[in-house]
Amino acid sequence: MDRLVIEGGVRLKGEVSVSGSKNSVLPIMAATLLTDYPCIIKGAPNLRDVTTMIRILRSLGKNVEFEKGIITVSAGSRMNFVADYKLVSTMRASFCVLGPLLAKLKKAKVSLPGGCIIGVRPVDLHLKGIKSLGADISIESGYVLAKASRLRGNRMYLGGIYGSSVLATANVMMAASLADGKTIIESAACEPEVTDLAEFLLKMGAKIKGHGTPIIEIEGVRHLRGAEHSIIPDRIETGTLMLAAMITKGDIIIRNAFYQHLGALIDKLYEAGAHTTKSDGSIRVRPKGRLKPVNVTTLPYPGFPTDMQAQIMSLMTVTPGISVITEKIYPDRFMHVAELNRMGAHIQREGPHAIVEGVKSLSGAPVMASDLRASASLILAGLIAKGTTSVSRIYHLDRGYENLELKLQKLGAKIWREKE
Ligand code: EPU
């Protein structure tokens, strides 16, 4: 197992380029199951989750190559309809092979993914949507068995107690693309990753309208063809780098960044005292004056992303004053709080709220990453802490950030990887 070691205190400066979006590429890879024709996905990040999805697609009978950011998927000799527990349990995004497998093969057996450290994470909305398309669903020995000789388009409401669901919307959109007739998803997720998937499906010949809004209409077609697509930049990596600039009082230019996907974060950073400027696919970030505390509530897109909650909390730990951070997507996503407190932060958790009292400085410490975004928040804290921070269990980071430490090194950070 590797750990990252950081010597804090360097102001980051320079330019860095963002990788393709993890949460975009994973469902798009699943969508290649909808066709027998070759698909080419460009700008794919080299991440552990991508490798896992490659293994899943191969286990389902696809030929997959991945070289220099280009994933090529083509038909193997025979497709398999079973997505095994060993693979699905390691990555929840793999559950979105259910819709495409069912639509293509008329049956699918996909392991239930189970919960994870950030919460219970049920799949009821996925199953509700797939059932609405006329599938027969049963659960046996930890697997979802879905069958349908023909899927039929339908109108459905896919909102849950925490709002819309990104991957349930993706799952249904993919299945409905090959269903008979029209499907209308109400309370669909509006995240840019859902829009990117819709763009890929459109290139495959699907008929989709309204993606990017809460009402998506899909007119089913008989067949989908192969397609070539470039993945959007990772907005969460972009946001994490923006916060790295802010927390170190640096000045950085982030290339391959979509400003328009980051409205809620940019608004909060402005309130906190950031100066951000956009030009031609890049964003420059630097603080202007003293940092100010901000209250943040995570919400489905275009609200403040839950995947940036841990990172903005790190910034607030060293911002004078009190800030309240409320988690409305995963109310238990606070594993980073105890670790940040080990570095000298003053954070008190009260249910879905974290009350952060800014301190003058953090002190480097050995800390443990519990999930992907928590790892990023600890690295941010390490960048500003006095002394040395070592973040263990860094395999979480490798699931979703491509070469983060190399990118930070390029900006001047003293950060390196060691074997534990
Ligand atoms: N939910 C249900 N029932 C369902 C599905 C979801 O109640 O059937 C709940 C969830 O428990 C949660 C809320 O709905 O409270 C939203 O979850 P959503 O389904 O949108 O999450 P997801 O699609 O499983 C994706 C990202 C997550 C990101 C969330 C929210 C991927 C691969 N994952 O997960 O990314 O946090 O949307 O934006 O796209 C990450 O990258 O670190 C990460 C966890």
Question: What is the secondary structure topology, with strand pairs?
Answer:
Blueprint lengths: L1 E6 L5 E5 L4 H10 L7 E4 L5 H12 L2 E6 L2 E6 L6 E2 L1 H4 L9 H8 L1 E5 L12 H9 L3 E5 L2 E5 L7 E3 L8 H12 L4 E5 L5 H12 L3 E3 L5 E5 L8 E3 L4 H13 L3 E5 L7 H10 L1 E6 L2 E6 L8 E2 L11 H9 L4 E5 L8 H8 L3 E5 L2 E5 L8 E3 L3 H13 L3 E5 L2 H6 L3 H7 L3 E6 L1
Parallel strand pairs: 2-15, 3-14, 6-7, 10-11, 18-19, 22-23
Antiparallel strand pairs: 1-23, 1-24, 3-5, 4-5, 7-9, 8-9, 11-13, 12-13, 15-17, 16-17, 19-21, 20-21
Helix pairs in contact: 1-2, 1-7, 4-6, 5-6, 6-7, 8-10, 8-12, 10-12, 11-12
The structure holds uridine-diphosphate-2(N-acetylglucosaminyl) butyric acid (EPU).
Shape: globular
Biggest sheet character: 4 strands, mixed
Q: How much beta, percentage-wise?
A: 25-35%
Q: Could you report the average pLDDT, rounded to the nearest whole number?
A: 97
What is the compact description of this entry?
By secondary structure, this protein is α/β, with parallel strands linked by helices.
What would you note in describing this structure?
The chain has helices at about 20-30, 50-60, 85-90, 100-105, 125-130, 165-175, 190-205, 235-245, 265-270, 310-315, 335-340, 370-385, 395-400, 405-410; strands at about 1-5, 15, 40, 60-65, 70-75, 80-85, 105-110, 135-140, 145, 155, 180-185, 205-210, 215-220, 230, 250-255, 275-280, 280-285, 295, 320-325, 345-350, 355, 365-370, 390, 415-420. The protein has about 425 residues and is of the alpha/beta class. The strands form six sheets. Strands 22-23-1-24 form a four-stranded mixed sheet, covered by helices on one side. A four-stranded mixed sheet has the order 2-15-17-16. It has a four-stranded mixed sheet with strand order 4-5-3-14. A hairpin with a 2-residue loop joins β8 and β9 (about 145). α4 packs parallel to α6.
